């Protein structure tokens, strides 16, 4: 049995994002017969309500109590920031987080981080290149950082 731990948001204001990711995860494993190379997969799903403290608590429980093989499809930058050190210290793969945060691309974060999504920098560059190629003269940029992230950047 291969245990895979998933901690993401399925309650609170951001619940639809987490629920969508969970549906994708469940569909993927169901299509593949809930197995990898003939070994049964057990998904252990926990809700963090997009609260980093809950992410840390649930991730520690997945590591210590459930003895998961991998952590999979966490949703968000602040929540992933709590999970990555736990994964790094336990040598557990942290696979396909739903965030483009740069810290996940830094080899110091965890050599076992496997990103599926492009970085925010790569996404922005692709958009700007497209606008330039299309000869657009005006673009708008919206900052989606939390207050905590803004303070960290200024610090």
Counting structural domains, the number is: 1
Main beta sheet: 6 strands, mixed
- Report the total helices: 5
**What does the average pLDDT come to?**
88
Strand line-up of the largest beta sheet = 2-3-1-4-5-6
**CATH homologous superfamily grouping:** Response regulator
Beta content: 15-25%
Terminal Cα span: 45 Å
Task: Identify the CATH architecture.
Answer: 3-Layer(aba) Sandwich
Query: Mind telling me the C-alpha Rg?
Result: 17 Å
Helix/sheet category: alpha/beta
Q: How many beta strands in the DSSP annotation?
A: 6
User: What top-tier CATH class fits best?
Assistant: Alpha Beta
Keywords:
Rossmann fold, 6 strands, 6-stranded mixed beta sheet, 5 helices, alpha/beta, 155 residues
Give a nutshell description of this structure.
This protein is an alpha/beta fold and 155 residues long. Helices cover 44% and strands 16% of the residues.
């Amino acid at each position: 049995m291969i245990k895979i731990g998933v901690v993401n948001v399925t309650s609170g204001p951001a619940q639809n994002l987490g629920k969508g990711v969970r549906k994708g995860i469940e569909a993927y494993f169901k299509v593949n017969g809930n197995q990898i190379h003939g070994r049964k997969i057990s998904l252990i799903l926990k809700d963090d309500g997009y609260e980093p403290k809950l992410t840390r608590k649930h991730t520690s429980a997945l590591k210590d109590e459930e003895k998961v093989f991998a952590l999979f499809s966490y949703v968000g930058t602040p929540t992933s920031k709590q999970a990555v050190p736990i994964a790094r210290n336990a040598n557990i793969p942290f696979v396909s987080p739903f965030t483009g945060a740069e810290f996940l691309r830094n080899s110091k974060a965890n050599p076992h981080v496997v990103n599926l999504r492009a970085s925010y920098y790569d996404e922005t560059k692709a958009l700007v290149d497209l606008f330039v190629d299309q000869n657009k003269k005006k673009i708008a940029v919206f900052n989606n950082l939390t207050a905590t992230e803004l303070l960290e950047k200024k610090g």
